[in-house]
Each structure stands twice: as structure tokens, then as C-alpha cells.
Structure prediction request, 235 residues.
Amino acid sequence: MNPVPVSLPFTNRSEAGRHLAERVRPYAVDDPIVLALPRGGVPVGAELAERLGADFDVLMVRKIGLPGHPETGVGAIAEDGQVIYDDRALARMRVPRQALSDTVATERDELDRRRRAYRGERPAPRIAGRDCVVVDDGVATGGTARAALRMLRQAGPSRLVLAVPVAAPEALEALQEEADDVVVLTAPENFQAVGEWYRDFDQLSDDTVIGILSERERLSRGPDVSRGVRIRADQ
Prediction:
């Protein structure tokens, strides 16, 4: 998890992914797959997968925000339906789990919508026996990453890696036990939010995510050899 000096802020998510690739390479050996957390992790993960020659897909996880303050994460829902609560934060704010039932239902619906939009009829990727690299554009509280890592652990990867360009030090410490390896470029002591470490941190649309996934799928298939070579009859 040793951070290395980098030029901050990152220009954008793609640049961060390029910097991250060389640090991740030693951990992506056995049939590697890069799994990005939408939406922000997708451009980072696409760059990573391209440079590692790894398979690429998304991993659907939704943050559970505090009612009335959705930016405050108090848990997450994984693609397999598992709900992970930050009970320490809930106890500190004196909020019972039951108070989050409506939020959980709403986020579950949004997770299903994104799964249909991003993956369609394509099956979930194979995890067992592979080096799996979970990627996001940064880690603030760690709740979303924790839910993703716990879900993947149950699927039996050969190695489980969390790779992010930037993260809050306390969140990384809590995530150490969830992954076999944690790769981070920088963990600033004055961390406030992920976006402050990027010059371009625009919100990504579904269309942007779908476009990146489609392009990666096209590249992974290679050239379309089904197209015949057209030869003029008078040659």
C-alpha cells in the first residue's frame, strides 16, 4: 500500500489510470480482470485494463447515503444484493438501520437499472481463480469498496486487489483486511474529498460509461475478420 510521489492534482481519471497501471502490474498475473466501480472508476479501469492486457467489466455497487444528507455514506449495496452497513457511523449519528429501509430500496432499484443499462444480457464475468483488480477513482469512506471486495471474495478469486489513485488514509487502513493487496498512488493527510485531487472531475453520464464499455469490448474482440476483402472484377 506504499504511496509513491505523483504530480497532483491528476489531470483527469484517464491520466490517473495510466499512472496506476505500472503499480498494479505485478499483482495482475493470473488471468487478470479489472472491475471498475461506476461511474467514476470506469475511465480509470479502462486505462488500467488496456495497459495490462486484462479483461474489463463493471461491478455494480451503490452507496447508501444518510437520509437528508445523501453525500454522507453509511453503507453500500453490492451487485449480489448484500447490504454492508457502517454500524460505527450509524451508532455515532444515532441512526438505526431501519431508518435506511427506504434508501436501501431506492438504491437497489438504481443498481438494477444500471446493471441492465451497462451489461444488458451479457453475463457477469467469471471471478473464480483469477486475479481481480477492483478500481475506483478514489476512496473517501471506503463503504462502496468494502461491499465490492466482500462480494468478490465469496466468488473465490486467486488474488483480490484494490487499486485507486487517491484515498483517505483512515479508509485505506480499514480496507486492508478486505483485500489481499491495496495499491494507491497517494493518500494525503489533508484528504477531504476525491474530486479535489483532479483538475477535471466532471460527473459521468450513463452514455459515457456505456461508450467506454462498448469500446473496450470491441477492442477485446480484435479486428473484424468476417468482413471479406473487396476486389474489383476488372483487376
About this structure: The chain is about 35% helix and 20% strand. The domain at 13-59+125-221 is CATH 3.40.50.2020 (Rossmann fold). The longest strand covers residues 69-78.
